[in-house]
Amino acid sequence: MAAPNMSVGKPTADRLPCNTTSFQKKSRSKLVSIPGTRPSIQNGQLIVSTGVTSLDYVIGGGLAVGTLLLIEEDRYDSYSRMLLKYFLAEGVVCGHELYVASAQDHPNDILQELPAPILDDIASPKTVEDQAKSCDPESQDAMKIAWRYQHLPKVQTALASSSRFGHYYDVSKTMDPEICQAARCHGFYLPEHSTAVTSPTATGQSPMPETYSSLLNNLQEVVHREGFDGSVPQTKSRNILRIGLHSLGSALWGDDLCCRENPSHGHALTTFLYGLRAMLRSSLSVAVVTVPSHLIQNRDTGMFPALPGTPNPVLRGSMDNDAFSDGSDPRLSLSGLNTKPFISDSLPPSTL
Amino acid sequence: MYAELNSILNTSPDSFKPGEFILVSDKHTDASFLIHHFLSFYLRAGCKVCFLGLVQSFSHYSAISQRLGVSLTQAREKGQLVFLEGLKESLGVLLQGEASKGTRTMDFLRDPSSGLRGLYDFVRDNVRGAVGGGEEWGTPVLLVDDLSVVLSLGVSVGAALDFSHYCRATVCSELQGSMVMLVRCEAEDEEEESDDEGSEQLLRGLIHQCSLTLQVQGLPTGYCRDIHGQVEVCWRGQCDRQQTQKKLFQYKVHDKGASFFARGMSSAVL
Predict the structure, then answer these.
(1) Candidates A46, A211, A281, A344, partner chain B, best to mutate (most B CBs within 10 A)
(2) ipTM of the assembly?
(3) B25-49, pLDDT tens digit by residue?
(4) Cα–Cα distance between A94 and A65 in angstroms, integer?
(5) Can you tell me the distance from the alpha carbon of A9 to that of A285, in angstroms, rounded to the nearest whole number?
(6) CB neighbours of A137 closer than 8 A, spacing ≥ 6?
(7) Which of B61, B106, B152, B227 is the best substitution to test chain A (most A C-beta atoms within 10 A)?
(8) Closest CA relative to residue A309, chosen from B178, B100, B47, B184
(9) Considering only CA atoms, which of A280, A251, A330, A304 is closest in space to residue A78?
């Protein structure tokens, strides 16, 4: 076969710099392809990674979209906080939107502490100018035999790693601020949102304290405004909203569940979780909530029956002081983790 | 609809006992596969079904029922199925905060001490069937997915028991229909000094009221890939019927159904 003319053909800038081939898998029309998600092996439901790949494996592949992961904090809130940060970091790397709510630390502080992702390669994709330079047939790098691949960068780019499901992180370093700022984040810092005005003309008592109501309202507003519940017509591609709620139920949220034996709003937190669940089921979002359950004195508030009642795994982080004095590593025990057969049939991928 | 369960319970869509109160309970596992069974069973039997879905969305049940061969959307359009989407209504209640607008069905969220009166009114209005016009369906059936979730929302055990009693009086005694309720218990095994744990109390109260109970548990020996758990079926002996009868089966949930077998007769073992 005669060698075709090298100068013939489309300019190389037209082609995507990262694809080695123009082959594209024919995707079934029904399944949405959102970056960072994949259909579960067991039942085809859309799942996202929690950020910790081994945790993904334990909970059956990943967190299903529309569900909530409840983490009971350990005594010093170290491991639960770490899990929350992994969850948010995974969202940044996958390009999801984030929603962080905290009563203690400002969401921006939490976002600055995210662990740095370990990406495959250091090389960045060549810019267009570099490509034009290398296409110069006079340059030494011009390929004579594999000339079709000349326009491609020499090293596989970092973009390939973000198409993976589940990443690894280096906890000793924090995420680059540039990567962090590329992600859209919505924050809810409770001291900024505490309204001086009490609820307007409340006829009866409200089931939740003001703080939870304002959080739920704010969350609903964000979900509706950004179109995660399908309200906005599909002008832009769909995305997932990752919701991280830190230390819900602690005293800073205005809830005395963790302070008193007989709290005045004993069921405020479970009511909030019920409302959160309703919101998750009707939108493309995932939530991770940490609760300082070791502070809850009254076991009868219906909190514990409620948690496994919602089909979410409950992680209990138990850390004793003895673990350190022993020299053994502190362990995170997963209890109450039952794999329910139909757990993830809540959202078939085609409904949303 | 699971064929093996039908033969265990001696029922079929063409012939089933009227006026039954079936209680499904689980402990540390998920018995909602039985709710899907009963939903498709009664829809196939042509009954008018009122479903209170308090913990999952309509699309959840719709997707699973489709695998079992029943279309919930069609049933809802024809008027055979009345579905209360608890989650969706609850958002309206929790977000607005104001009373007055919307139905009173989920009022227990706003004021847990008022009980489940609104919910019962919803049931009563929808179970009687269409008066004039529309197709005539069979006996009414009430299905409640997860009565125990109202306990975690602040409703007292007494109110929940009152609700089930009222529903039973209306649906089972007056209209000769059937009722299926799911209750979930999460008793901690370690310490049980508080004997009046909410969901345990509710379960005991409901067992006293029901006529047939299916108690689902995990295997006492632990996790098994081929056997997902065991279900204990108990027919309560009423005054003129037979004595209380108990049977124990093991089950495995598949993609499109569930299989039931006697202990030790799992297909993986034989």
Answers:
(1) A281
(2) 0.88
(3) 988 788 889 999 999 999 999 889 9
(4) 14
(5) 45
(6) A6
(7) B152
(8) B184
(9) A330
